[in-house]
Amino acid sequence: MQLQGSHWSSAVASADGTGGRNTPLRVDAQRNLEHVLRAAREVFGELGYGAPMEDVARRARVGVGTVYRRFPSKDVLVRRIAEEETARLTDQARAALGQENEPWSALARFLRTSVASGAGRLLPPQVLRVGVEAEAEIRVPQQRQAALADPPQPELRLVEQPSAVPGGPDDAGAAALLEVVGQLVERAREAGELRPDVTVADVLLVIATAAPSLPDAAQQAAASARLLDILLDGLRSRPAS
Fold first, then answer.
1. CATH assignment, 8-77
2. How far apart are CA 47 and CA 111, in angstroms?
3. Which Gene3D superfamilies match (predicted)?
4. pLDDT value for 24
5. Could you state, in order of their start, the residue ranges of all structural domains in the chain?
């Protein structure tokens, strides 16, 4: 299985209407592009990637034709948003890894930052899933088991999966995210601060689960913080009694 998106480069090259040329956009065109991208993040974050392009245009206060001039298909727009959110998560994980000396603090910082940014609501569900098949081509770095007697834990892999969500980040971007989150998980496990059965898949699931979409921003922030506290408590290892 490979990640969907063999035509990613050509799709992105045409998304700015320049055919891949490095021609700068006019000021008004650049402004419209920024409005469309911001609106797409909001709409897809609230309604999911199944939301129609008309909703994006309405939120951006532009005509739907303007959206399609920038992004010739919804698939291209979804890929753009998914790629940007994956890169943002990767940057957040690298910052936590490089700036926090304590393994648990690094993992908790990454989760809190990612949940607060709302990135979990924009993770394409067909890109990341838990699987146990050995045929997966792209994997999280192999994780040590707590003991040889323990059953193998599910691994996170990149898959192509039928879904209402057509797009997703490219292989390199997704693999970079999985690799750096794997480092956070491994460090916390080796320090004895993370439950030995927790996988990278679990950590990404926390990001998605702790980012509910609520109509009131204050309620949403409070609910996310409360839910994340509960989930972090569940991830942490407990001393043997």
1. 1.10.357.10
2. 22
3. Tetracycline Repressor, domain 2
4. 56
5. 8-77, 79-235
